Each structure stands twice: as structure tokens, then as C-alpha cells.
Amino acid sequence: MKKTILRRAALAAAISTTSSGAMAAGFYLNETSISGLGRAFAAENTVGDNAAILARNPAGSALFDTITLSGGVIYVNPEIDAEGDVTYFAAPDTPIATLSDQKATDYAPTAWVPNAYLAVPFNENWSFGLAMYSNYGLETDFDSDWPVTTIADKTELLTVNIAPSVAYDFNDQFSIGFAVNFLYADATLKTMVPTNFGLNPTVAGADILSYDDADDWEVSWTIGALWNITDRTRFGISYHAELDPELEGDVNSDLVPLPLSPFNDAKGKVTLDLPDTLELGLYHRFNENWGLALGALWTDWDDFERLEAFIPAGGEGFNPLLFKEENFQSGWRYSIAGEYYPCEEVTLRIGYAYDEGAARDGFNTGDAAANAYGLPITWRTLSIPDTDRNWVTIGGTYKFNNQLSIDGGLAYLWGDDETIQEFTTVPAPTYFDGGTTNIEAWLAGVSLNYAF
């Protein structure tokens, strides 16, 4: 059995993928717990109603008096559509043909996002934790006859984060925690000639450039703290350091001649600048029946400027080889949620969040090829159709007894339509002038929690 098959089989139960354009800024994932889903992930690093807090704050294991397990899965059903005009050029100011109102519908596949957590108190002060989840993911996949697969065909990022942690509790009032993050990332980037490419049928369906089986392990860290201000009010803060996995994979191209060499399983390396994050949370229980959660999450996307590969076999002209300019910007996610406790066994939740997109508005004026043709191109791209999003969520927990409980959550999110303009010269100068016409998603999840 090949190494790739073994690797994917071993991680299949843990690894997750979802569409960045529908889920969160850039391709950051919030979907770390099902109780959090019902709260729109407000104060997810603070509430601590189950061991899933360990994904957001390693100090969370200090909240538990007994060994506690939590595990669940979230089903994500995104709907991303785009539409626009596609123009082919022979030379600047010399269009050959225009295909009007070209539509790509539902080009972000559905996904399952699993998670699992373990909190282990050691004594009155020390506790340990183990978290396994995904906090970055992306998949967009266009039909093979989409006229601009030369610009955007398949983009995929799969990740799993394994985070052992330790926490120290100071007199049940203040606790700190530290975690080590072991991140596995696997990526695919692909552009191809449309299968119905009429300008040159001899190259229809050919790979322009594919970057496959690119993967790496990266190590980083998280630090967090919890402050029990009163017996009803808790504040949490946590910081996740950035990750920079160097994804090594195989570069291939079917087309000759190209502005590229005819690569055949040439080795390449792409450094992926994944952002650091800072999360603030406040949870207050007013009385026996009502609670409030407030959250703010800052994601530092400024370092994610471009996707480029270093391909030693390509010589100077391909080191680096630019895939895509991105020029992301940092932003905030704000969330608020209410909880209602009608009885000891039941908790009901409702939440709202506003998530700022990482893709910049405006135009990339530094693209030499587009400038030569006098064509404006946006920072926002088809492969990562990012936008600001609104979330509305509901959820609940039912306790069977003091040991076993079940969580459920449901969310709907939507974003504004955005203008997208992109250009490529391979295999023929091609310009897309349009944008997204729909960005929305439904999320549903369930989890079980057990305290020994």
C-alpha cells in the first residue's frame, strides 16, 4: 500500500474539510464543539460546560473535578454560487469571444467536522487535557467544463490539530494553561483546461498545473487563562501562536509549451502562513434560569499574502512560482448568546455572530499580466470567495444523569455577494468578470459528554 494511502487512512477519522468561503474568515474554522455551535461560539474559551473548551483555552481542564470526555461531529452543508462573463483575448484590446452569464453552482462540497477531547484532573491544582480537532479547512471544486478552470478548479486544505495541555488552578479563582499544537496539514491546488475548451480542443481537459499530496507536520503553542470573577461570572483569554507548515508535494503539468517547464512529479514546497489568534470571552449567569455569553476573536491574517511554490527542478524561473496573490487582512469575530435552564436536566441556547472576512475589498493593481491587458482584478478570488458573514444559531443539552449528556446544535449563516474579477494567460488570455451570487450554509451537530 502506498504511503499516501496509509497516511490518509490513519487520519481519516480525525481530519476534516470545509469551505472557507462559507465558514469563517479566510479558512479558519470555528467548529470545535456542538454546545458552542448553539451559542454561535460566543465565549467558547470561557464557558466550559464540557471538555471541548480545550480547543480554545488550555486552562479549561481546571474546571473539571473528574475525568471528562467529549466527542462529536458537525455536518456542514455550504451553498456557494458564482456567475459572470468570461472573455478570451488574442492580444490586449483584442477579444476573441465572450461567454456571457456563466454560472458555477454549489461549488463548495459538504463536509463532516469531527472533534474529541479529554480533561484529566490530577490533584487540586494540576490538570491535563488532550484535544483533537480542526481549526483550518478549505475546499472548492468546480465542474470540469467551467470556462475558467484555468483560474480556479480545485483548492483543498485538510488539517487536524492534536493538542496535549496542562493547567494550574490557583484557589479555584484563577487558572492558567499551556498547550502544544501538533498540526497535520494536507493540501491540493489544481488548474486545468476546461473539457469543452473550444479555442484549442487538443488541450481540452489537460492539467495546467497541479500540486498534489502536499503535506507537513508543524508544531506551535497555545496559552490561556480563566478568571472566576465571582461564582456567577467568568472571564477567559487565550492566544494561539501562528503556524507555518511547509507543504511538500508533487508538481505536474500536461501542457507543452508553457510558461512553465513540463513538470512530471517534480518536488515542490509551499509555505502556508496560518494566523495567530486572540480570543476573549465573558460568561455570566444571572440566576438559576438565565446565562449570557459574549465573545470576540481576533485573527491575524496579515501575513498571508500569497500562495507560491519553490520547485528546485524548475531553476531560477520557478523559485518561487506564484499560484495566487491573496493579501489577506486581519479581522474580528463578535458573538453573543443566551442560555436558558428550565430544569436541571436541560439547557437551551440561542446565539448570533458577525464574522469579518479576511479577503480585501478593492483591486490588485500590481499584477503585470492583467495590467498589460488593461483589466482590473480583485483581491477576492473564486477559489477563496471570502466575505463578511452573519450567524444565527440554536442548540441545547440534555443530561441523562450526572455522568452522561448529549449536545445538539443548528446554525445558519450567510454573506453578502461580492465582485470577483480574475485573469490568466494560460493556455489563452482569459478574464472572468462577475462575482458570487450566493454564500450561505447550514450546520448541524451532535456530541456526547461523559464524566467518570
Automatic annotation (TrEMBL):
It is a multi-pass membrane protein. Belongs to the OmpP1/FadL family. Residues 1-24 form the signal peptide. One of its GO terms (molecular function) is long-chain fatty acid transporting porin activity. GO terms for cellular component: cell outer membrane. This is Long-chain fatty acid outer membrane transporter. It is found in: Cell outer membrane. The keyword Transcription regulation does not apply. SUPFAM superfamilies: Porins. It comes from Microbulbifer thermotolerans. Keywords: Cell outer membrane, Membrane, Signal, Transmembrane, Transmembrane beta strand. Coiled coil: none annotated.
